[in-house]
Write a structure and sequence with these properties.
This protein is an alpha/beta fold. It folds into 2 domains: 3-139 and 257-296, Rossmann fold (3-Layer(aba) Sandwich); 141-253 and 309-319, Phosphofructokinase domain (Rossmann fold). The protein contains 12 helices and 11 strands. Strands 3-2-1-4-5-10-11 form a 7-stranded mixed β-sheet, with helices on both faces. The chain has a 4-stranded parallel β-sheet with strand order 7-8-6-9, sandwiched between helices. Helix 1 packs across helix 10 (259-277). Bound molecules: adenosine-5'-triphosphate.
Length: 330
């Protein structure tokens, strides 16, 4: 293999630039010419493909997002546009492509692989950590740290003003970000789609705690539930405390990548390139039990992600803290 390319597809995450840096440096080390493809599959169709060297990746490791841009591409769903994209790759002599993205990007990668003899390596990259087959997706740690900083700051004002704050985290259909954020910031309430809940259980406990002196609450709720405003009203009406909502939104997607994400970017990319060199045609690099492995696109992009049971158990305890006499929310 002499020429390999990389692209970012779907939602951008912090750590993508570190991945690009490692991609260029490791490809050159392995005597290959690295290429960038801008704007994901859109750029593949429009031939925004160009060779790069050390200069293009100097100083980018500290930046969130991706310097080669990410995109979603409706055109790519049509075969004739994919044929055009493959023609462009062939014209450049590219034999392997690393795709940083989520489920959808891997499905696209599978189509390209089936329609050509070019090899593909997928790296799970989404802040939602909702990709099956891997315990970790690039960008999650940075997003969690941004959420942590936001919750810590909100706790300061909540405690100073005797208020309840309902903080909504991203995650689409998955409660991972909300759950881990609640556990690691000591929130009083955490609502996610994976754990059935009954607010009556919390009401009893919160009223008891309030009469014992608790003067503020921090609640974390996953965007998947669409319950943020309902919860604000619940705190005001049922618990009798002034309440505010904070929807964290896209702030969770940007920012200076953490050490962990920089290192994981390096490790994911190394395995992606090694996989291509070993002759793997369309594998996704997965991180499990402290190590990396290769999984088929079928096992990753066509399977539903489940939050590990051990984490869910910790989350379930939110509604049944010691001393609660109400029924368990689960
Ligand atoms: P995120 O987690 O940020 O949503 P994703 O990779 O799942 O990332 P999608 O928008 O689902 O994001 O997919 C990215 C792109 O992959 C799409 O815009 C489309 O071009 C391509 N893609 C998705 N599904 C398919 C498919 N079934 N066949 C071909 N291409 C696809």
């Amino acid at each position: 293999m002499k020429k390999i390319a990389i692209l970012c597809s779907g939602g951008d995450v912090s750590g993508m630039n570190a991945a690009l840096k490692r991609f260029v440096e490791y490809a050159l080390l392995k005597k290959m010419q690295p290429y960038f493809i801008e704007h994901g599959y859109e750029g593949m169709i429009d031939d925004h493909i160009y060779p790069v060297g050390y200069k293009e990746v100097a100083g980018i490791i500290t930046k969130g997002g991706t310097i080669i841009k990410s995109a979603r591409s409706k055109r790519f769903l049509e075969k004739h546009y994919r044929t055009q994209a493959l023609k462009n790759l062939k014209a450049h002599g590219i034999e392997g492509v690393v795709v940083l993205g989520g489920d959808g990007s891997f499905k696209g990668m599978q189509k390209l692989s089936q329609e050509s003899d070019i090899s593909f390596s997928g790296i799970p990259a989404t802040i939602d950590n909702d990709i099956a087959g891997t315990e970790y997706c690039l960008g999650v740690d940075t997003a969690l740290n941004i959420i942590k900083n936001a919750i810590d700051a909100i706790r300061d004002t909540a405690s100073s003003f005797d208020r309840a704050f309902v903080i909504e985290t991203m995650g689409r259909e998955c409660g991972y970000l909300a759950l881990v954020s609640a556990l690691t910031s000591g929130a009083e309430l955490c609502l996610i789609p994976e754990i059935p809940y009954d607010l009556h259980t919390y009401k009893e406990r919160f009223l008891r705690e309030k009469s014992a002196g608790r003067d503020y609450f921090v609640a974390i709720v996953s965007e998947a539930l669409d319950q943020t405003q309902t919860l604000v009203t619940w705190f005001e009406k049922e618990i009798g405390i002034e309440s505010r909502a904070t929807v964290l939104g896209h702030v969770q997607r940007g920012g200076n990548p953490t050490v962990y994400d920089r290192l994981m970017a390096y490790r994911f990319v190394t395995h992606a390139i090694d996989g291509l060199l070993e002759g793997r045609k369309d594998a996704v690099i997965c991180y499990n039990d402290g190590g990396f492995g290769y999984r088929s696109i079928e096992d990753v992009a066509f399977v539903d992600y489940m939050i590990p049971e051990e984490l869910l158990l910790l989350g379930k305890e939110y509604g049944i803290k010691e001393g609660t006499t109400g029924t368990s929310p689960v």
